[in-house]
Structures are given as C-alpha cells and as structure tokens.
Design a protein that fits this description.
Elements lengths: L1 E5 L4 H12 L4 E5 L7 H6 L7 E3 L5 E3 L1 H12 L8 H15 L2 H8 L4 H11 L1 H9 L14 H20 L8 H11 L3 H4 L5 H9 L4 H4 L17
Helix pairs in contact: 1-3, 1-8, 4-8, 5-6
C-alpha cells in the first residue's frame, strides 16, 4: 500500500491526498513534526520536505509536482482523451495554483494589518486570474467533472473557506465564479477525504491565533470583504 508522510496542515500534502482520493486509491499516512524531523525521514527525503510518497515497491518520491505526475502515470488520468496542448495548459493552471500555497500561508499568518494587506494584495491576484478563466457554466474548472486543475486549487479554496467561516473575511470577495467553484469543491467530498478529522482544529490553532486575521481584523458591517454576506 502507498504511504504518505505528512505535516497535518500542509497544502502540498493535501493536493496529493486529494489526487489519491479522487481515484479511490487507498494509502497509509504518517504525520511528522517539521520542527523535529525524524532521522528516518531525513534519510529518504532529499529536500527534507513533505509530502513524501512511498510507493508500493518502497521507493520514496518527493516534490508534490512529481508525485502528482506519478499518480497519474501509475493509476490513470482523471480525464480521458486530453490533448497534449490541453494537458500542458492544465499543468500550467495547476502550477499557478500550487505556487500560491506559500503565498496564502504567509498572508494568513501575518501579524499586523500592514503586512496582511501587502501580502493579500499580491495573493488575491491569483484568484482574479482564475475568475477570468472560469466560464461560469460548469461545476468545476473545465467541466462538470473533477480535473487536475481542481485538485491543485482545492487546498487554496478549502483554506479560504475556513477563514471565511471563522472570521467573515472572504479572499474571494467580488469573484462570483470563483465562489461558485469553491462551493462545488467543498461539496465534492474530496475536502474531507483529503485531510485528517481534526484538520480544522489544527489549522485554526495555527493561523487564527496571534495573527491579524484573529486579533486585528476589524469586521465592520458593510465593509468590503469583511463580512461573510458581503459578496453573496
């Protein structure tokens, strides 16, 4: 059986586990403390980062992009009949999503208003780009079926949803097509299938404790993006 080595709230890990869940591929998971990485992990992880996927033959694979490609090559694509051109586009849009994981993490962990606003201004441009790409006529990014692009953006949309539910702040304010896409992702079942049962507790303890989103965000009724109802 496959084994995933994980840090519980890592978005790169969630992309991998969501890809496995979308294919109904069983796997084991082991969580490690990134501040005290076990030696066995360092011995087999060249970059010392999660996710690490240990294949059924015992080979440790690292770097989430490479792991996603392995899953597709080994267990089959989510979509059939995709042209090489479209596959390249899908990889590009997926990369745009995954390269913003750390940007979102940095924004959420900002300690003061100035830092939050500076980081957020840069981060939300990714959602603005996706808003322009979405047709608004399909449930997911390309169609009514989950694709690799949906999997890549799922961690971003999931975390934005948690922040909205707990603080009222909406990263997707004034982006109606992206909001509809987020809702579809949240209803897909892949979110719950790709994280631990106590994920939200660990997430909020980390990002909504001693951060601007928790202690300094002024949630005034009618202020743009400050209330959960301002953007529909």
């Amino acid at each position: 059986m496959l084994k995933v080595v994980s840090f519980k709230i890592c978005p790169f890990v969630q992309r991998v586990t969501a890809a496995l869940a979308a294919r109904d591929i069983p796997y084991e998971i082991e969580y490690i403390n990134l501040k005290d990485k076990p030696q066995w992990f360092l011995d087999i992880s060249p970059n010392g980062q999660v996710p690490l996927l240990i294949t059924e033959s015992g080979t440790p694979l690292f770097e989430s992009d490479a792991i996603i490609e392995y899953i597709e090559d080994q267990y089959g694509a989510l979509e059939q009949g995709v042209s090489n051109e479209q596959r390249a586009l899908d990889r590009a849009w997926s990369y745009l999503g995954s390269k913003n994981y750390m940007s979102q993490c940095g924004t959420m962990s900002s300690k003061d208003k100035a830092t939050f606003e500076q980081r957020n201004e840069k981060f939300v441009t990714a959602f603005a780009k996706i808003e322009n790409q979405l047709s608004g006529n399909t449930r997911y990014f390309k169609s009514d079926a989950i694709s690799n692009v949906d999997i890549a953006w799922l961690p971003l949309l999931h975390r934005a949803n948690i922040i909205k539910q707990h603080t009222g702040y909406d990263f997707l304010c004034a982006l109606p097509k992206t909001q509809a896409w987020q809702q579809a992702i949240m209803e897909s079942g892949l979110v719950e299938a790709s994280v631990a049962d106590d994920f939200e507790l660990h997430f909020t303890n980390f990002y909504l404790s001693e951060t601007y989103l928790k202690t300094g965000l002024e949630l005034q009724s009618g202020t743009a993006c400050a209330t959960s109802g301002c953007c529909g």
